[in-house]
Specification:
This protein is α+β, with helices and mostly antiparallel strands. The protein has two domains: about 100 residues, Helix Hairpins, CATH 1.10.287; about 210 residues, Histidine kinase-like ATPase, C-terminal domain (Heat Shock Protein 90, 2-Layer Sandwich). About 50% of the residues lie in helices and about 15% in strands. The protein has eight helices and eight strands, in the order ααβαββαβααβαββαβ. Strands 1, 2, 3, 4, 5, 6, 7 and 8 form an eight-stranded mixed beta sheet that branches. A hairpin with a 5-residue loop joins β6 and β7. The radius of gyration is 22 Å and the shape is elongated. Bound molecules: adenosine-5'-triphosphate and magnesium ion. The site of adenosine-5'-triphosphate (ATP) has 22 residues, from α4 and α7. Adenosine-5'-triphosphate (ATP) binds next to α4 and α7.
């Protein structure tokens, strides 16, 4: 066979392979979308059923608060009531989030400072005692990085990734959160895949095929690159895509619903980003998330962000902060 004909045949075969990949991916997405639609129906009835008892709980909390004096003896009960209220509000938000998510109607997006969210999620889990035996290393950026979406969604994303990491490590080990600003073109160049080095900076992790297609098709110039890595047992390559399916779980019945990463994937979609998982050198999982960067909010909003940053000096920027 002449060399040109062989080359053409080779090109056709390569195009065909890419098409097959694409069809497989579309099919997987369709299945995911159908599962999401049924979650939506389920969420609607659950939201209805949860709404009434939740309202009653809050009513009782208010009644109890009315019966307490504002003296020292009441300090602890008042704090407990406040915690009850906070957690009830969280349940309400989760149910509402599931509904929004299932309805595919993301609420109006706004610029969010990523590391601000990372820090408040770490604080939240620490308050709940989940990080007692976990060393959390935050590697943040010099300048704040803003992405567009709902703050609550981004919180949910990090909380899900952190809780999964803690579960995988049986509550003990290391979590590294790395945030970087990257130019899209550098992420697309195979030669610069070093950028995807994991926890210790020594392992190369090119984006998954799905993420590479996202990079090829996206017109954002600047990308926020987030890595959440842990020192647990990691995710095997065979499960790397399946873990994002709704109701996929390896946890015993009653322990996990398998919704966490499906919600993460959905949130990433709402932020017009992409997510994939690799294995860190230590064997732990490294979740990579890419989001298009948006401009910082102007005026009053920016002042609020700056204020928030000064108010939490414990996590210094641009250097490794073990918290
Ligand atoms: N950091 C991690 N290390 C190892 N395996 C992980 C990690 N994160 C997720 N997984 C795997 O992915 C599966 C799906 O995760 P997902 O968060 O969707 O559900 P879940 O944690 O099992 O349940 P839920 O989040 O609904 O409580 C997990 O059961 C686990 O097998
Ligand atoms: Mg989970």
């Amino acid at each position: 066979m002449p060399a040109t004909a062989s080359r053409e045949l080779h090109d056709v075969a390569a195009t065909f392979d890419r098409l097959i990949d694409r069809v497989r991916e579309d099919q997987a997405q369709l299945i995911r979308a159908e599962k999401l639609a049924s979650i939506g129906r389920l969420a609607a009835s659950v939201a209805h059923e949860i709404g009434n008892p939740l309202g009653a709980i809050l009513g009782h909390v208010h009644l109890l608060r009315g019966q307490l004096k504002t003296d020292e003896a009441s300090r602890e009960p008042l704090e407990l009531l406040a915690a009850l209220e906070r957690e009830s509000a969280r349940i309400e938000r989760i149910v509402r989030g599931l509904l929004d998510y299932a309805r595919a109607r993301p609420p109006a997006p706004a610029p969010i400072d990523i590391d601000d969210v990372v820090r408040s999620c770490v604080d939240l889990l620490r308050t709940q005692g989940l990080l007692a035996a976990v060393d959390v290393a935050l590697e943040l950026t010099d300048e704040p990085l803003f992405v567009s979406g709902q703050r609550h969604d981004l919180e949910q994303l990090f909380v899900n990734l952190f809780i999964n990491a803690v579960d995988a490590m049986n509550g003990q080990g290391q979590i590294v959160v790395r945030l970087e600003r990257a130019a899209r073109f550098t992420l697309r160049q195979p030669a610069v895949r070093r950028t995807f080095a994991d926890v210790d900076g020594a392992v190369e992790h090119p984006p998954s095929a799905r993420a590479q297609r996202w990079l090829a098709g996206h017109d954002a110039v600047e990308i926020a690159k987030i890595v959440v890595a842990d020192s647990g047992p990691g995710v095997s390559p065979e499960l790397a895509e399946r873990i994002f399916d709704p109701f996929f779980t390896t946890k015993p019945a009653g322990k996990g619903t398998g919704l966490g990463l499906a919600i993460v994937a959905r949130i990433v979609d709402n932020f017009h980003g992409t997510v994939w998982v690799t294995t860190a050198r230590e064997g732990g999982a490294a979740f990579h998330v890419l989001f298009p960067v948006v401009a910082a909010p102007s005026g009053a909003d920016r002042a609020r962000h700056q204020h928030g940053r000064r108010a939490t000096p414990s996590t210094s920027r641009a250097r490794k902060a073990h918290s």
